[in-house]
Amino acid sequence: MSKFDKYFLMSPSDAAEYAAEKLSIFCCDCELDSKEIGDGNLNYVFRVWDKNSDKSVIIKQAGFTARISEDFKLSPDRNRIEAETLRFQGDLAPGLVPVVYKYDDTLSCCSMEDLSDYTIMRQALLQHKIFPKFAEHITTFMVNTLLLTSDVFLNHQEKKSLVKSYTNPELCEITEDLVYTEPFNDYKHRNDVFLPNLDWVKKELYNDNELKLEVAKLKFDFLTNAQALIHGDLHTGSIFVNENSTKIIDPEFAFYGPMGYDVGNIIANMIFAWVNADATMDNEEECINFKNWVENTICEIIDKFKAKFMKVWKEEAKEVLAKTPGFSQWYLSQVIHDTAAVAGLELCRRIVGMAHVKDITSIENESARLRAERICITVAKGYIKNRESYLFGEQFVNTLKEVEYEFPR
Amino acid sequence: MSKFDKYFLMSPSDAAEYAAEKLSIFCCDCELDSKEIGDGNLNYVFRVWDKNSDKSVIIKQAGFTARISEDFKLSPDRNRIEAETLRFQGDLAPGLVPVVYKYDDTLSCCSMEDLSDYTIMRQALLQHKIFPKFAEHITTFMVNTLLLTSDVFLNHQEKKSLVKSYTNPELCEITEDLVYTEPFNDYKHRNDVFLPNLDWVKKELYNDNELKLEVAKLKFDFLTNAQALIHGDLHTGSIFVNENSTKIIDPEFAFYGPMGYDVGNIIANMIFAWVNADATMDNEEECINFKNWVENTICEIIDKFKAKFMKVWKEEAKEVLAKTPGFSQWYLSQVIHDTAAVAGLELCRRIVGMAHVKDITSIENESARLRAERICITVAKGYIKNRESYLFGEQFVNTLKEVEYEFPR
């Protein structure tokens, strides 16, 4: 018998004991210390390290309620989905996700590679650091994890069993509400709009019927389109970076959904970094340099994604109709249209919904924040309404720059 | 212990014994007789009746291989899917499916209402009988079973668990191959083309790249679009009729797929009845009357489907965005476009694929059959390529009549 034979919510010292007993990482002469370092809404994250060596491990445990509220009940099955997704993505995109050492079904915890020498990308972008290899890495990650889990590549029976295994009803519902519904009607009365923008938001989001019709169509695509195993929460807070390497973490929202959901989230969060720099950087040259890097990165993400997608399709596609003339081009163009739409949704929901991003909330100057938010939402509406005209990276950036001039400082 | 405690393939006398032991249908003084009456490719169907009363039952059993070939291995889980679907559809569309008495997981058999006083609709249509209430019944069935199993009506978490439960990989693969692939490339070399039409079929189907591109798009919709719990094999051989009543049977292909798949199959099979009459009926007035009834029925099926769909949507939709202005109209128009496309696919695959329909194969006159097949395939290509222009029942019929004149007798 071991204390870890049945579920309980671990303390930091439990996590250290767990690591010593269950993981074969540390030597017998180790001296373990442990700390809870989680800052998300849902889970507990323990870092366990040996004071006598450089060995360490991350243990992420899911509770039966969310970390932020006892009232928010949530199945710990999300931890299984996260662990299985990390392993699957690690096979498909080697080196781009942390290594999983063990998934423990009893404790709903996943032990994985410690990435403490990396920085969370959002924090780094808020310091206006640039990552020249990011577009290269993230596009490899997305093309491999998306295209190679789709019916283009997988045997269709095998794919159907993956769809079952990655069914993720509770976390999908969070997205269905927070991304696809509430930003456009506040029907749960929990939007959190920056007060000076409230009337403008009502007019631009809650009262734009053309926009709401497009959002309804997109919501049903998210509800029904089992296209690929998507990460499901691919913002810059789910990415660890350093100068040479990128690691994508936290795929607990993973399920079979539309590919554009991942690509669009990345684009939107790059735009948040851009508006933050635009609103807060005093040194004009540095500001222009950073914004240029973001713009180039947005272009590169779209265009490298497309180029790699076509290459992998050509080399790896197994579906017999995949080689039909014109089909891969058509399929990819749909993904890019979806990307534009989802980028728009993410831009809206982070501005007006309950889950903000620091890129926006850290803008202290009121009129600068007001302008930054309006730029984001105006870009968003263009992306959503005109999504079928987006095909190239440059178009995504051009919309941003056009909208920038609509809102003079 | 009972002999029915573990799986074996029943004989007719086993089925009678099973009915006596496991079902509470017959009295103790009954005298049971039994016969295997199945004529499908996959399963065994026993009719068990009491010689001393009017009581009877149908017992449908699935083997671990298909009835037609020991080499064709197939999970008997299809019997569970069929039984659960019949029960679910019976709740959603009362009176339009046979009553299920018992599903037996051990023997993979389903005991249900005996409909021997009904006729299989395809056989009745081959005798050129008309069923004035059919459009009314089938549209109620389709609207209720499709719309009420979709995200428009169901709680999205509940719907996701239904998607899992109705995952049907093996039977979907049959459709993916026979409907969405082989008719357009014969890549498994098992198409069975009427020889006098072979060159024409090669030109019109195998060598039409524009058509093949549209088919590839449609195949991926079938592979990914978990829209509603569809019947999955809704042709006139899956429908029992009499003058006043309609019963839809055999939903073993059921899974979460595109709504238009069911509606399109019905339309295509009505067209088969039309071309059969056109090719074989000697009495001109009777022929015109029958064809008129089919044409009106096609119109009614589309238009009543649309009217009932809008009514049920208005009364029953639970999804918060369902009332978004214009959304229900847009959603329904997509279903009708899909209907046109699927009608086209079904028309093609029954003409050139391995699973024919008697409406075509029973046309004895060679030039009449040749013409009938060309009418079907030409209509089909219009439905597939121009699917986005189809919105009203009349348009479906107009295409048929236009094509009829392209091929003078």
TrEMBL record, chains A, B:
Its EC number is 2.7.1.100. Keywords: ATP-binding, Kinase, Nucleotide-binding, Transferase. InterPro entries: Aminoglycoside_PTrfase, Kinase-like_dom_sf, Methylthioribose_kinase. GO terms for molecular function: ATP binding; S-methyl-5-thioribose kinase activity. Transmembrane segments: none annotated. Belongs to the methylthioribose kinase family. Homodimer. NCBIfam families: MTRK (TIGR01767). This is S-methyl-5-thioribose kinase. The lineage of its organism: Bacteria, Bacillati, Bacillota, Clostridia, Eubacteriales.
